[in-house]
Predict the structure.
Amino acid sequence: MKLRIATLTTIGLATFGALYSNLRADATRSVWDGVYTADQAKQGQPLYNENCSSCHGDTLIGQDVAPALVGGEFLSNWDGLTLGDLFERIRTTMPASKPGSLSREKNAAILAYILSVNEFPAGKTELPQQKEVLDEIKISASKPGKK
Amino acid sequence: MRRKTSNVLPLTALFAVLGLTWIAINVSGQGAGYVPSTAKGDWPYYTADLKGSKYVPLDQINASNFNKLEVAWRFKTDNLGPRPEYKLEGTPLAINGTLYTTGGTRRSIISLDGKTGEVNWTYSFREGNRAAIAPRQLSGRGVAYWTDGRGDDRVVFVSTGYRLVELNAHTGAVITTFGEHGMVDLKVGMVKGAGEQIDLETGEAGLHSTPLVVKDVVIVGSSFKEGMTPVTHNNTKGMVRAYDVHTGKQLWAFNTIPRPGQFGNDTWENGSWAQNGNTGVWTQMTVDEDLGLVYLPVEDPTSDYYGGHRPGNNLFGDSLVCVDLKTGQRKWHYQIVHHPIWDFDLSSAPLLVDINVNGRAIKAVALPTKQAWLYTFDRVTGQPVWPIEEKPVQQSDVPGEKTSPTQPFPTKPPNYARNFIKVPDDLIDFTPEMRAQAKDLLARYRVTDRPFNPPLVGDEKGLLGAINVGNAGGGTNWPGAGFDPETHIVYAQAANSSAAGLSVRKPPAGFSDLSYFSGRNDQPFREALGPGFGTAADSPLAKTVGRPQEPPPAPAAGRGGRGAAAGGGGGFGLNVDGLPIMKPPYGVISAIDLDKGDLKWQVPYGETPDNVRRILTEKGIKFGNLGQNGSVGLLVTKTLVILGDNQVTNPGTHPRGAMLRAYDKQTGKEVGAVWMPAPQSGSPMSYLAGGKQYIVIAVSGGAYSGEYLAFSLPENE
């Protein structure tokens, strides 16, 4: 009886611990954690060139009428917000000439490409397309742990 | 006895009826007149008053309590259109505690209770394709107001599709007796070429600014698409027109491009007047009611950076023109830039300040500009108050271009922000190495010792561009400046670090009839769309016709990495280690004493941008308030100058957001700051409602959609 209780308790604690650390990981997931795939970014590049580069530049440095999508100023503007915020902004208002015309899949690919140009690491899982899920990924200009 | 009673009763009844009717009329507001004025705590015009002051004589909110301001109410514009807007630029009007303004991707008109933000009414109408392809979209800068002083109160505005509309201010109902069922089609009468009427649906014309309402006249300007990469130099011609506020009948029209026989036509050589357009008045105008004079700030002719198809000085491009209120006849003019090719559009309301210079009283007009010069004239005669000198400037070597040998340089007041890069003094100086890097960078560009460096044909094999400061965005852009009519001080915020390497290129085959326009030969062609363009409610899903397919560029391996782009206008690659090539302050607020023609004080605007803060901190470099770039509008009260940051920052001293700041009018000392969740995107205003002072400001940007934010003191203050 005692052994069964101990076993169950151990299993329970282990399960709880595993769940808890997953939750913790989700809460602190950021753009530094490999949140898109290299393939996805590769798909995003021609989509970016076709739909975005005319205003934001082929190297994403922007011009008078559209801000940069790479570099310190861009990341400062979005630091502390989530990829969900950025994704929704892009999805509903861009490209400027035909807002809301691109599918969520295409928007996710373009966002993956933007992340790659900003030199955030690629990973094993594709960038999701749902705002609520993207809300769990924080945009952090500096690598967490480094101040 | 019976006879007396029978006489008195009907008379009593008659008086009772009359009395009740009189009460009813006054209580309902119809027939009860209210004439608004800033003296009463109203804000009846975009610029507070007809003279452009942005001044309201209130001091309930002052230095002792500014930090105690709370959000009184907020109004989101998300659902005033099919999608939210992220560029809310309106400044509401306040009339007797009621606000009127625009909002949303549909450019709806809204009336709000000034105490609570509750909606009284909203108005919008579907203009279809005409609005969807309009050159100036989103909600624009606001509305105008007219009253007969006896209860006939109207909201007057220009729709996205370029129609002049009047609404009943109490109900939002269209005034059907105005124009055709409440509307005047402003595209009627707009022409291109030698006088060809533009297509009412697809012709290019629109407006962001508010109409000017004075006496019983409504004056309206005209605006077009961004002029960096136009498809033709033969674009719609700008005009300024006046209409009767009751009937909508046109009273007069002023052609900003003079026709044959009109003064200034010969400044368009080779008959080029007939093959060029733009030259509109897209910003706010002001008027001296007593003198009956209207002041028009005119923009560039077609093609902001190349004038090879319009040799000559091109009057009245980039000119301040004074016209008669009754007739539209030109009284005087002053051209600020001859043969304009720097995108130095006259961008904001001319300020009508009464000043006293060396004992002489002068009714003056002071013009804030992208060049950060405050050109000051006697507004009756057009004579410069202080000498303006024609000085030789760099000449263009672009084929077909013929620049003016000289440009006007005001001697006083001094420029209130930078208008060229003085090498090395204006260059980044955090370390000697950074300054050396800046000099190396500039070696790829043509640098001059004064403004008006003409664009060159940019190419990686040669020079990349001509270094200029303040084009397109200023200096001072559309938000303009303000002044205190009692002290004769002008208050102007200005961008101070917008460096650009201006270059032109041949357009891709078939795209344009211009020989050259903005761009670089060695880079893929990019059509430059204006900010907000295409974001209107019914923007078409079809691709724009006429945009050629260029092969996508090779993968940008290694370029554009983190830290490569900088704040403060480094978008041309003009940055050093991610920092602006020009040294701080990146933006400034200046007080200019117009009695003396001198700067009274100048302080940094806003606070250090996050990316600059991070880079300098990482390098162990100490710094103070470096200010931030950009042009924003301000509000002037009895004791304060009030304006907000146009960038979100997270410096650790306040939550991530932008601050609305108050400065002591006399000294420029920051005396208070309150937090806002998003940057200022429209100019602030202030008013009294129910005896309480409010400040309302439009905020939007990044992930934060448009919102009017109202501040007031807590109840027990």
User: Anything to note?
Assistant: The radius of gyration of chain B is 26 Å.
